[in-house]
Design the sequence.
């Protein structure tokens, strides 16, 4: 009966980080710098991999798609975050909130499966180098990337449908800085059992399956590397994986903390900073990790800029 008298909200308020003006200004400058570095770094990776023939390989094909996804993830969250840090009223329309949920869930899961595809690529390159040109053919790479986007799209549609069944009556304040599906489920005044099941199932199915591919790939990779007699050979083989492992560790650690472990009032601040890691920090760090630790990327950049 209470639900029949419910007046559905047309917009939400975003709690953000703090109400202190000085802290908000400092955060604005920090996140603005982060966003600019993210845009320049990921666009640079995309342009460099397309412009340099030396980077026309499966590894960099996946990397350019990862950079494209990171651009989207960052742009879904950061511009609104920056506006809210300089505004007294932090609100977001219901329709915009739905769009944020759809796009973020789409590209978030797509990134997980792109990282799994990159792990499989490294597995074939190190464990079966003679078969690499045959296995990682352009057609196979295209299918892996297309599959990643399709899985992301499936998740985005599923989470958006889940959100559309929720009612929001008594409270409209989201205790985050953007519309995240887990925060919206907590805010809903309707029965959220089905939404919790969909969220947990999707997080477990997509997160665990993609991470399992990565785990099994690296178990085989490490076993192969340990069988190499030369210390220099071991170092070179492992160096091709360190950038990917760093990215995986940052992203999956934050996502598992946010979606697979229940939050409490005392952990909400930690949840916010976990969200910052995978929405703000990771998209910025990925191009830096892959460029600063990768001699091929640095050499391609020097060739493009004609630096001797």
Sequence:
């Amino acid at each position: 009966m209470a639900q029949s008298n419910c007046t559905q909200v047309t917009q939400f308020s975003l709690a953000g980080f703090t109400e202190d003006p000085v802290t908000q200004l400092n955060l604005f400058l920090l996140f603005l710098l982060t966003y600019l570095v993210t845009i320049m770094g990921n666009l640079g990776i995309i342009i460099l991999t397309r412009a340099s023939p030396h980077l026309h390989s499966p590894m960099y094909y996946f990397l350019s798609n990862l950079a494209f996804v990171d651009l989207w993830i960052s742009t879904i969250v950061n511009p609104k975050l920056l506006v809210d840090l300089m505004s007294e009223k932090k609100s977001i329309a219901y329709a915009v909130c739905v769009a944020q949920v759809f796009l973020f869930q789409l590209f978030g899961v797509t990134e997980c499966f792109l990282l799994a595809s990159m792990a499989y690529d490294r597995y074939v390159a190190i464990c079966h180098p003679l078969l690499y040109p045959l296995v990682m053919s352009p057609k196979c790479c295209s299918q892996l990337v297309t599959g990643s986007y399709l899985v992301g799209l499936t998740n985005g549609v599923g989470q958006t449908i889940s959100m559309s069944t929720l009612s929001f009556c008594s409270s409209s304040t989201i205790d985050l800085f953007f519309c995240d599906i887990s925060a919206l489920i907590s805010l809903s005044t309707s029965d959220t059992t089905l939404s919790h099941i969909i969220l947990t199932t999707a997080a477990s199915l997509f997160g665990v399956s993609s991470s399992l591919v990565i785990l099994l790939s690296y178990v085989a990779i490490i076993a192969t590397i340990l069988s190499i007699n030369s210390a220099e050979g071991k170092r070179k083989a492992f160096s091709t994986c360190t950038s990917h492992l760093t990215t995986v560790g940052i992203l999956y650690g934050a996502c598992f903390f946010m979606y697979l472990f229940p939050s409490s009032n005392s952990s909400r601040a930690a949840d916010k900073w976990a969200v910052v890691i995978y929405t703000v920090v990771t998209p910025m760090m990925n191009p830096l990790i892959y460029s600063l630790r990768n001699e091929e990327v640095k050499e391609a950049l020097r060739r493009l800029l004609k630096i001797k």
